[in-house]
């Protein structure tokens, strides 16, 4: 199997590449992974190929699966107007390049997995949200929605699309947890605002496991001449018969910020007395503070319905098994 990954060297793409390589080697299956990059000199493992966006436009190489993960971190910087434009462009431009390749190649991929985030649902408090839930309009929703709608255009070329709406990914190597470990280990970690906001998280191991599961399920269904849509409620309405499936990549046990704070502090054997007031968070981060103050209770119904078994379904288990 040949897999092309945009954002392959990132926090998720690199972990996915390592895990699926190990699995396929263990089963003596052929696998070749190519990272799409703007810099041909980018560091990469020996078993990974590199391809620049310029070469992709004229490449005759074929891929069975495309994994579209490129995009600047939404929580990395304050949301100025320029930052909002950069966040959108970092997602739209790579996706447009992939669509151009799909349109031009004679051998169409069997599946496009395209990244998104649970921000698509907007701010909805502690209301349980599944893949069939509606949304509230805010910047995070608009960003995710525009990205998703562009990716879905791959269906016009007969390529099935799986949209993965990712929650807060937990792993000590990066992401939110990577940023929090230092202050928590110093004993100055604490809850945000009133701590009641719900955090929909997933361990990086389960994110990778779920992505591999989605690939294998979709390819197996195509081999059996079945639609790759898990259920009707989970299918986007499109103008052709090519399936589009939504998956929430979150653990089945979301927690409040208060519970997250206490669980991480307990795991690290550190106190968690501090609280960052809502007013201070808004002053520090402006509009982006919504990511910290307003929760979302997003559940992985489509994954559960499809039979995925979470390896780390609880936060404490994720912290322990990932050696945080």
TrEMBL record:
It comes from the Bacteria. Signal peptide: none annotated. Residues 3-221 form the NAD-dependent epimerase/dehydratase domain. Residues 276-321 form the DUF1731 domain. InterPro entries: DUF1731, Epimerase_deHydtase, NAD(P)-bd_dom_sf. PANTHER family: EPIMERASE FAMILY PROTEIN SDR39U1, SUGAR NUCLEOTIDE EPIMERASE RELATED. This is Cell division inhibitor.
């Amino acid at each position: 199997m040949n897999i092309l990954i945009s954002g392959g060297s990132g926090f998720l793409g690199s972990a996915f590449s390592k895990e699926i390589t190990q699995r396929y080697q263990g089963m003596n299956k052929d696998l070749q992974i190519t990272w799409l990059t703007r810099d041909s000199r980018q560091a990469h493992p020996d078993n990974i190929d590199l391809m620049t966006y310029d070469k992709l436009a004229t490449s005759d190489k074929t891929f069975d699966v495309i994994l579209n993960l490129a995009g600047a971190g939404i929580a990395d910087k304050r949301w100025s107007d320029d930052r909002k434009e950069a966040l959108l462009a970092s997602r739209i431009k790579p996706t447009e390049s992939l669509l151009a390749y799909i349109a031009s190649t004679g051998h169409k991929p069997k599946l496009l997995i395209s990244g998104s985030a649970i921000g698509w649902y907007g701010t909805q408090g502690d209301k349980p949200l599944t893949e069939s839930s509606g949304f509230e309009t805010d910047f995070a929703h608009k960003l995710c929605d525009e990205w998703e709608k562009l990716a879905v255009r791959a269906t016009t070329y007969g390529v099935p699309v799986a949209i993965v709406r990712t929650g807060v990914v937990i792993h000590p190597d990066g992401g939110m947890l990577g940023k929090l470990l230092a202050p928590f280990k110093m004993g100055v970690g604490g809850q945000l605002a009133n701590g009641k906001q719900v955090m929909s998280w997933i361990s990086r191991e389960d994110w990778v496991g779920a992505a591999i599961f989605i690939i294998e399920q979709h390819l197996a269904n195509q081999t059996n001449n079945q639609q790759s849509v898990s259920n009707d409620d989970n299918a986007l309405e499109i103008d052709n018969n090519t399936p589009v499936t939504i998956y929430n990549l979150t653990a089945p046990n979301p927690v409040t910020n208060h519970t997250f704070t206490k669980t991480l502090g307990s795991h690290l054997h550190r106190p968690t007395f501090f609280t960052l007031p809502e007013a201070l968070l808004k002053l520090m981060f402006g509009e982006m503070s919504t990511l910290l103050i307003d929760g979302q209770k997003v559940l992985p119904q489509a994954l559960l319905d499809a039979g995925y078994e979470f390896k780390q379904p609880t936060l404490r288990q994720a912290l322990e098994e990932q050696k945080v």
